[in-house]
Design goal:
Elements: E1 3-8, E2 27-35, E3 38-46, E4 60-61, E5 68-69
Antiparallel strand pairs: 1-3, 2-3, 4-5
């Protein structure tokens, strides 16, 4: 049971992830970026069950940094 927070055109703080720490005690991540003129903020609390390695850390960026995703589940 991971936890996800997100907002469009509203600034979130990484500390907001503490409010959902019970959803994922194994790690947390936060990403904020502009897409056009829109500010996108997303955070993730991780409960590591399937992939216990650091490769499962989220939010994830693609190899050239042009895309970011956070999700609940496995690939």
């Amino acid at each position: 049971m991971c936890g996800i927070i997100g907002a469009l055109n509203m600034k979130l703080q990484p500390s907001m992830l503490e409010m959902i720490s019970h959803r994922g005690p194994d790690s947390s991540g936060f990403s904020e970026f502009l897409t056009g003129s829109h500010l996108v903020s997303m955070g993730h609390r991780r409960l590591a069950i399937v992939d216990l390695s650091a490769a499962g850390h989220q939010p994830m960026e693609n190899e050239n940094g042009t895309g970011v995703i956070t999700y609940n589940g496995s690939l």
